Amino acid sequence: MNYRPSPFAGLPPVTKNLLIINALFLLAAWVLRNTFGIDLNHFLGLYFPLSENFHPAQFGTYMFMHADFMHLFFNMFALFMFGRVLEVYWGPKKFILYYIITGVGAAVIQLGFKYIDYSNAISVLTDEQIAIVFEQGAQALREWKNFTNPDMAKFNMVLNSSMVGASGAVFGILLAFGMLFPNTELMLLFPPIPIKAKYFVIIYGVAELFMGVANFSFDNVAHWAHLGGMIFGFILIKYWDKKGI
Known about the structure:
The chain is mainly α.
């Protein structure tokens, strides 16, 4: 009988369990949606605090939910590649603390910029239009509908659309890898050239800043959450260095 080692063999425990948990959540979301018509992302994704769908626990649960398989794959691939190195370097307790703090921090930053969008949206709406969105908007999105008035539709998306994904924590991991192993060479896929980790992180950070500021109408990626994960990661690493932790 040929022995085939587990694909998770040799992975440190936190990284391994995060990979498994995220995959199980996606599987559970698929089963519940296709079997019972229950949208797990609706309950565990992160909503704007003024939405009727918001719950404080979503600051933690949102980072274990993903929109689809490719969303999960790219986040988990980055976690697999860089997270295991950081976990070995820091140890499991420090690594999971970093992961959670950057994930929650990413949510805080994203919601902060979402509040700006919220304020801008209500400034062009009447009190009656705002009330209609609060009363009917969440149900409309659950039915894959939105308002024909573009300002009301935009306000409804700010108020009642959710954020899911481990991207904030993953970008925190990328930042940490670039800071701790700055001269490690990474091989890009497109284009297939080597690049030092520190330059890779800088380019990625600048790109996310540009996309966040540009705020293209066709772009539904939470760029400010990505930057938020990096910002909180940078602060946490500097704090640990200062305290000698």
